[in-house]
Amino acid sequence: MFERSDETLVKQALKGKKSAWVTLVKRYEKSVYNYTYRMVNNGDDAMDLMQDIFMAVFRNLASFRGDSPFKGWLFKIAHYRCIEFYRKKRPTQSLDEAPEQLAEGDATCPEYQMSSSQQASELQRAMQFLSFNQKLVVELKFFQQCTFEDIAAQLGISTNTAKSRLYSALDKLKDQLEVGYV
User: Fold this and answer.
1) In the chain, where the domains are located
2) Distance CA 69, CA 78 (A)
3) Which CATH code for domain 1-108?
4) Strands (DSSP E) found in the chain
């Protein structure tokens, strides 16, 4: 079956074709939800963020220039919405501080139900010890399969900074995962 490109769908959505917008949302809703869930570790907050992100994308669709892929633009908006969430939710806590208590998995959340393996839950626990910036780089590199150049462009940092944050995050993850096996 012929699949329309994101850019074609954006152009059609801007012309008022509702089905094009619905196709874009369906194409990315699972990825955006999973991204927000990994960032906030709460199913309800992730769902609210996902809706907020798609509303922002819809309102700003006319500003999409097509210089970069739609997916990158979408996740840049998701990135900023996650930062706003943290600023509103935890105004007195630094984004680099580890949370006092680790959030328990939400049994009603589809992603939690899918991640029934012990390794996935251990990884999720360990990711809570990463700073927000480290989480973002891990998310973009491993879950969104972005290159270091894409990560740098999306976050407005140098490629070397993206690499440094990733390797630092991997060291922290390794330490946290080893603690679970000692």
Assistant:
1) 1-108, 115-182
2) 14
3) 1.10.1740.10
4) none
